[in-house]
Amino acid sequence: MAVNGLEFEKPIIELEKRIKELKAFASTENIDFSDEIKILEKKVVESKKRAHRNLTAWQRMQIARHPDRPYTLDYINALTKNFIELRGDRAFADDQAIIGGFASFQDKTVMVIGHQKGRNTKENITRNFGMPHPEGYRKMLRLMKMAEKFSIPVIAFIDTPGAYPGIGAEERGQAEAIARNLKEMAHLQVPMIVVITGEGGSGGALAIGLGNKVFMLENAVYFVCTPEACGAILWKDRTKAPEAAKALCITASDLKKFEIIDTIIPEPVGGAHRNPNKTAENIKNTLKTCLIELAKLSPEEIINQRYEKYRKMGKFLEK
Amino acid sequence: MAWFGKRQYTVLPATKKRDIPDGLWTKCPGCGEIIYNKNLNKNLSVCPKCRFHNRISVQERIAQLVVKNTFVEYDKNMQSVDPLNFKAYKNYKDKIAQEQKKTGLKEAAVYGEGDIGSFHVSIALTDYRFIMGSMGSVVGEKVTRAIELAIDKKIPFISVSASGGGARMYEGIFSLMQMAKTSAAVARLSDEKIPFISVITDPTGGGVSASFAFQADVIVAEPRALITFAGPRVIEQTIHQKLPEGFQRSEFLLEHGMIDMIVDRSELKQKLVDLIGHFDSYSK
């Protein structure tokens, strides 16, 4: 797999390249370099760990936006069987920036939904870079309500820069679509489990994100507005995005500290794109336990647990 | 060669601009008419000539809608803290202090109960003057409590939003979660079958439009109010096009089926009374 390097990953990628060259050279020339290779490999692991221990918010954002990062369909394929995509909002169009359908997870049916980004320009035109229009959110609502009707739990994967800001989106009621989803999710009678896998872009993410449990991958980010936009507004300078990313507290560890999310799902060293299978495995284990736990609750308890969770959120002073 | 030195044009000294004393007259942003403030106030801050609806404070709004001396405000002193310790171009704490001084309010939302006509209601309002009426923890909490008040007392809930700022950036993810919190409260209100009327005024955007403001049973807007999900500037920067005239104004939303009606401020109170009357018709 071609790996697109981020700035802080460059030395690691350089080392890996050298190991590869050395291995190739050793096999063609029949020389034993195994000791040297071992030393280099150890060095790679160490520098990876070092680089990833102290990542800044902005660096994590780069990993969350990494073009090789696994997307929703990758996770659906890795975690579930028999995925059947269901399309269209029955009113206007089918939005391919956000997808969903039936799937079997651990031999039980679940409704999986999530934003879908594209891998290349052509795909990204179809997927609109994972930025849904109102019809996309209305499709999600249709699927969630159907899941509720047949007592099927919902699993949502979140990875979007945000809901699309455009003329058509406004004409067709982007605000109304998101507002309606929030209200309907709040009293959905089936378990709703949310995994933030990449970018949690504001209202566009929350619109499928009102979960009984909310998990977040280690390098995922969740924000009220993009650091670029925040920089432009509060610093009057778009290039202040790294500072804004820090100030907005967008990382998984920030949100865990604030009790906005329930659990951080660890990623392999170097980020999810370095080992998608391992990442999927970690998500699977978390989802498995969570589904068993939530299955014990009655529909009423499901609604109340969700209500209490969000009712507590917010920090203020009362005199 | 006298013409070299000759002045071709006479330069007249600029006429002295006529000073308009502050606070006596207002120039209408709609038609440019100069209006005597006392007349403007008598006219509910609507231009008598072109019906331009000037933005008004929550205090003025309450005075216009709620029967005199019936309004009881709750949690008046609830204040924002600075959960992220936000430091930018301006620090959040300084920004709040500045807005409190400017508006005489502790925060961007006010809620309480009072009478509209003969109906007793719970009402929550936001004020555009306080960090653009944006929703942080306090606004979210107050709106939620207003909804809970309506549920407890089984009285209609009215929201009047003037929140151009949407979700408040300074409180980061906490602001986003207020959308979830208020929405969950509206879901309960709806399950209890208690009527909810949302009055959307200029300007209302993002985090407020994409939560409680668009979740009401009936949505009423004032004329020419800017009502958005994404603001016009954000859209222009995304699509690199100039937006059409009237885009994202009340009339545009009415035409696209997003709101029930546009009501002139002079008729708003009566319209609310009539609507609540319909909701209430079979409850006795």
Describe the structure.
The complex is a heterodimer of chains A (319) and B (284). Helix content of chain A is 50%, strand content 16%. Chain A contains 14 helices and nine strands. Chain A has helices at 10-29, 34-53, 57-64, 72-79, 121-127, 134-149, 167-171, 174-186, 202-206, 227-235, 241-248, 252-257, 276-295, 299-311, and strands at 81-85, 98-105, 108-115, 154-160, 192-201, 213-217, 221-223, 263-265, 316-317. In chain A, strands 1, 2, 3, 4, 5, 6, 7 and 8 form an eight-stranded mixed sheet that branches. Chain A is globular. In chain A, 50% of the residues are buried. The model of chain A has no long low-confidence stretch (mean pLDDT 93). Chain B is an alpha/beta fold and 284 residues long. Chain B has two domains: 21-54, no CATH class; 55-280, 2-enoyl-CoA Hydratase, Chain A, domain 1 (Alpha-Beta Complex), CATH 3.90.226. Chain B contains nine helices and ten strands. Chain B has helices at 37-42, 58-65, 92-103, 137-153, 172-191, 206-209, 232-239, 250-255, 265-280, and strands at 25-27, 34-36, 72-74, 79-80, 109-116, 119-126, 157-161, 196-200, 218-221, 261-262. Chain B has a seven-stranded mixed sheet, with helices on both faces. In chain B, strands 1-2 form a two-stranded antiparallel ribbon. In chain B, strand 7, helix 5 (172-191) and strand 8 form a beta-alpha-beta unit. The model of chain B has no long low-confidence stretch (mean pLDDT 93). The interface between A and B is large, with 58 and 66 residues. Strand 9 of chain A pairs antiparallel with strand 4 (79-80) of chain B, so a sheet runs across the interface.
Number of domains of chain A: 2
Number of domains of chain B: 2
Largest β sheet strand count, sense and barrel closure of chain B: 7 strands, mixed
Radius of gyration of chain B: 22 Å
Question: Can you name the CATH architecture of the largest domain in chain A?
Answer: Alpha-Beta Complex
The SSE order of chain B reads: EEHHEEHEEHEHEHEHHEH
- Please give the CATH class of the largest domain in chain B: Alpha Beta
Radius of gyration of chain A equals 21 Å
CATH level 4 superfamily of the largest domain in chain B: 2-enoyl-CoA Hydratase, Chain A, domain 1
| SSE sequence of chain A, one letter per element | HHHHEEEHHEHHEHEEHHHEHHE
Instruction: Bin the strand percentage of chain A.
Output: 15-25%
Mean pLDDT score of chain A:
93
Here the CATH topology of the largest domain in chain A equals 2-enoyl-CoA Hydratase, Chain A, domain 1
Helix content of chain A: 40-55%
The CATH class of the largest domain in chain A is identified as: Alpha Beta
- Helix content class of chain B: 25-40%
User: What name does CATH use for the topology of the largest domain in chain B?
Assistant: 2-enoyl-CoA Hydratase, Chain A, domain 1
Record field, number of beta strands of chain B: 10
N-to-C CA distance of chain A: 58 Å
